Amino acid sequence: MHLFLLTALTMCAFAANSILNRLAVESGASDPASFAVVRVLCGALVLCALVVPRGGTLRVFDRRRVIGAGSLSLYMVGFSVAYLSLDAGLGALILFAVVQISMFLAGTLTGAIPTFRQVAGAAIAMAGLAWVLWPGAEVRVDPTGAALMVAAGVGWAAYSIAGRSEPDALAGTASNFVVALPVTAGILVAGAPAWHLTWAGLGLAAVSGGMTSGLGYALWYRLLPQLAPAVAAVVQLSVPVIAIIAGVALLGEQLSLRLMAGAGLVLGGIALAVVRVRRR
């Protein structure tokens, strides 16, 4: 039960990132690139403030940073730039589909072969997510945006897989953010057509970076060694559903029968993949 509650809390933190991003970008308080840079900066500052006073060490030159920080930068850059040309629902579908495939494949290659229940649960949950997020017929798929979102999905999957071998979740996450900051900022500064950041956007990005990203990612790294790769992949399908439900509750968005049915499929698929059946 303890692991379940912490995992649910982590998924809520991930969903909160989506809500904060939408509030900032869709309201015009920030552009995606500015939001991403401030997000990584604030995450690095908060995590360092937690690690250094307790005598922790930032291992920025550790070889784990090649995968940890590199994949975090790939995710941040790909995610931020892809949404400039992709529909939000389609982008989420591409992202989570790639994460599923990548983590299932990585688990299989390392000997953690998914069970039939896990594969079936992932398929049901992904079908429910597709039902909720599938864009209308008028949506055009931009090849560049889709490729960037695929890269973001691979980056997040690699970041999650790397967390399984991180000896200190908090210090490891802090080190990843510190190393990823100049890489992410450099790429986005060079590629952003224009910068726009209001005080409201700065505040939303700071909360996203320091709280729901920094602390949320550190908690994720702490939980990953206790989760099978397939389970870690499947539970993340709940994030878009949580974000949509939060949008209904907090932003006044419309609740539809399609959303309720799709959410039921997602949660049912996750339950099928995660819950173990005890044999008598």
Can you describe what's shown?
The structure is a single chain. The chain is an all-alpha fold and 280 residues long. The protein has one domain (2-274). The chain is 75% helix and 0% strand. It contains eleven helices and no strands. It has helices at residues 2-26, 32-51, 64-82, 88-109, 116-133, 143-162, 169-191, 199-223, 229-235, 238-251, 257-274. Helix 1 (2-26) packs across helix 10 (238-251), helix 3 (64-82) crosses helix 7 (169-191) and helix 5 packs antiparallel against helix 11 (257-274). The longest helix is centred in the N-terminal third of the chain and has 25 residues, at 2-26. The mean pLDDT is 87.
Explain briefly what this protein structure is:
This protein has 280 residues and is mainly α. 75% of the residues lie in helices and 0% in strands.
Overall pLDDT: 87
Radius of gyration: 18 Å
Low-confidence stretches: none
Q: Tell me about the biggest sheet?
A: none
Number of domains: 1
Class by helix and strand content? Answer: mainly alpha
Structural descriptors:
280 residues, mainly alpha, 11 helices, 75% helix, AA-Vitamin_Transporters, transmembrane, EmrE-like
